[in-house]
Amino acid sequence: MTGDTYRQLQPVEPFSLFSAKDIQLFQEGTHSRLYEKFGAHFLEYEGVKGTYFAVWAPNAAYVAVMGDFNGWSHYTHTLFPRWDNSGIWEGFIPKVGAGCLYKYFIRSHTGEELQKGDPFAHYWELRPKTASIAHGLQHQWKDKKWMERRAQHNSLQSPFSVYEVHLGSWRRPDPSNHEVFYSYTEIATMLVPYVKEMGFTHVELMPVMEHPFDGSWGYQGTGFYAPTSRYGTPQDFMRMIEAFHQEGIGVILDWVPSHFPYDAHGLFRFDGSHTYEYADMRKGYHPDWNSYIFNYGRNEVRSFLLSNALFWLDKFHIDGLRVDAVASMIHLNYSREVGQWEPNEQGGHENLEAISFLKHLNETIYQQFPDVQTIAEESTSFYGVSRPTFMGGLGFGMKWMMGWMNDTLAYFKRDPLHRKWHQNQLTFSSVYMFSENFMLPLSHDEVVHGKSPMIYKMPGDEWQKFANLRLMYGYMFTHPGTKLLFMGAEFAQTQEWNFKSELEWHLLKFAPHQGIQQFVKDINKLYRTEPALYIKQFEQDGFEWVSTADHDNSILAYLRKGTKREDTLLVVLNMTPVAHEHYLLGTNTAGTWKELFNSDDPVYYGSGVLNTSPLTTQKQPYNGKEYTLLLRLPPLGALIMKLQKQ
């Protein structure tokens, strides 16, 4: 085209991607695709290529785009405020393209001047630098097979065994240099085959959203719409997700809609006012994390968070969101003393705005992406976290079973001699195990801050520690509910997790660690292939106690059931180091049982107390049951028997 075909464009041209409907939904708190409007978008205007910028700054008197394309000038590229009082500033800047560094220069009504990163940026400079980078999300996805079939993989009637990973510290190029990382591409070549070999169905990534401080592990985010540049570009991240999907592994993201840090370039006091956070610090400040809480009562903030959840599902093909710190969101008195919080309008301690937001969030996610799951980290007895909203619930797919985790770890820390007095710590979960769709978590939170690694929570000598750990995992994988295990726990890491280093892979030279790793591989396979362990994992009739009365020997037995009689599994747990050669167990299920799995198998570093031949019940009343079964019970062992077809 000739140069005189078009007029000379201004430094910033009036232009908008927003329709009246967009503004309406934004202000109603129901816009779920704001990332298609806000941020930096490459387009052509009057024959000239450039970038459209849009930012929400309702208290600003002046907003400009400053960047490497204008010498970081505060005044050469001034955005236009919309006429509709939406608080949106926007404009098209000619000849600015992909890769440019930029921030928003904001002057508030009070005269305060701020330099802010773009809340909707898809890519950021590597910390400690803080500029946003104009970057598109074009990608030719190659996971069609997974996306077409993932409804089955992510179903609540399917096995869900999750490997929780912190990308920076799973492996490092130099374990002693925490400034150097593998790229998303390099991580994928190592992590994808490992997760597949270990038998996990899903991987959960600790927050990958851009964050300034490594020590926050990603939980203090500033770039909610950007995978961190520590490991590469958004497209590199997409290719890593693709690699998981091509191997049949789902990807869950840790998502943090509860709070954000006070870094100068982030969301805090974005336009000189409390834009994203509550103005009342009794609601707006989080004392535990020295961070600020989203204002769930402000509709534009609700649209920001709703769109953010949908963004990862839409643009990155994510299979689920594990929503962090839900308890802190829905309770006004969370970590607050009397006088530090104000009751809601009904006089209660619930944050009604956060509750209504979470309900709408889950309704929207399951409407638009019915083949994904949302998982709540919620530690209280709040009703119906994983129940549908039409039943009064919050609408999550699953909830972390924190009570089970606390009771189980407390029990296994005990000397086996004393366990007989505390059997209720294991049986109590059956009182409430079907009140929610529970996921059983042994997460990163249990192996930091002086809590010790899993193996050193176990009592006894080396052999007993490993036997106890296998026994606990055996209990976990046969207990109703889905599973989550933090990286390193699968081979008995001997140090607490340290985000600055990497896992202790050298331990796999030693037989006990090889044994526990093989155990996790095999029990994952068992969980995936035995319908009784997953098909009714959230249903009452998928579980039945067989024996809870043998306190003296600290032995428990229960059935896991599928849809067919021959699916039935018998699980027997011996919580002491005393083997039983002729243990009589009463049962009402007659038939022949075959040992499927034994945590004391020598291949796992066990002592080899096995049931090598099928065992048939005898018609003999015992402990109120019609039949008896004579078993060999391994020391500190988990035994899984399967009912044979008649």
What does this structure look like?
This protein is of the alpha/beta class and 646 residues long. 23% of the residues lie in helices and 24% in strands. The chain has 14 helices and 30 strands. The strands form 7 sheets. The protein has an 8-stranded parallel beta barrel with strand order 9-10-13-17-18-19-20-21, surrounded by 5 helices. It has a 6-stranded antiparallel beta sheet with strand order 22-23-24-30-26-27. Strand 6 and strand 7 form a beta hairpin. Helix 4 packs parallel to helix 5, helix 7 packs parallel to helix 9 and helix 13 runs parallel beside helix 14. The longest helix has 19 residues. The protein is elongated. The protein starts with 19 loop residues before the first helix and ends with a strand.
Describe the protein's topology.
Elements: H1 20-28, E1 39-45, E2 48-56, E3 60-67, E4 80-81, E5 88-94, E6 101-108, E7 113-116, E8 132-133, H2 144-153, E9 161-165, H3 167-170, H4 184-198, E10 202-205, E11 209-210, E12 223-227, H5 234-246, E13 250-255, E14 259-260, H6 281-284, E15 285-286, E16 291-293, H7 299-315, E17 320-323, H8 326-330, H9 352-368, E18 373-376, E19 398-400, H10 402-412, H11 424-427, H12 429-432, E20 438-442, H13 462-478, E21 482-486, H14 511-529, E22 543-547, E23 555-560, E24 569-574, E25 580-587, E26 592-598, E27 615-616, E28 618-622, E29 625-633, E30 637-643
Parallel strand pairs: 9-10, 9-21, 10-13, 13-17, 17-18, 18-19, 19-20, 20-21
Antiparallel strand pairs: 1-2, 2-5, 3-6, 4-5, 6-7, 6-8, 11-12, 14-16, 15-16, 22-23, 23-24, 24-30, 25-29, 26-27, 26-30, 28-29
